[in-house]
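User: Please predict the structure of the protein below. I'd like the answer in structure-token form so I can feed it into my own downstream comparison script.

Assistant: Understood. Taking the following sequence of 123 residues as input:
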Amino acid sequence: QVQLIESGGGLVQAGGSLRLSCAASGRTFTNYIMGWFRQAPGKEREFVAAIGRSGANTYYADSVKGRFTISRDNAKNTVYLQMSSLKPEDTAVYYCAADSGYVIRDSVGYDYWGQGTQVTVSS
């Protein structure tokens, strides 16, 4: 079992920045690819970014590429999502997830999920 706790969400103006954190506990953190997904009201959950077990490989949705950066600190069992140049369309609940396989972009393949943190971008 892996427990994931997100933090860092909030209200920010368009063009601003936020950094989300996700602290993991339970099983060995480096066994998992870590991902961030988001879900806006009335929309399906969508992939945002993912990072490989060592942190060497990163993956992004086209909508956030160049604006968001995913990173992980394996010594602290934590994954981060640095969000810059935020837009109102980035408003959503952001979820951290852990993947024991190699699914990357499909939420169905992730084994564990956090409770989510709200990000609201005002125009």
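That's the full token string. The mean pLDDT is 96.
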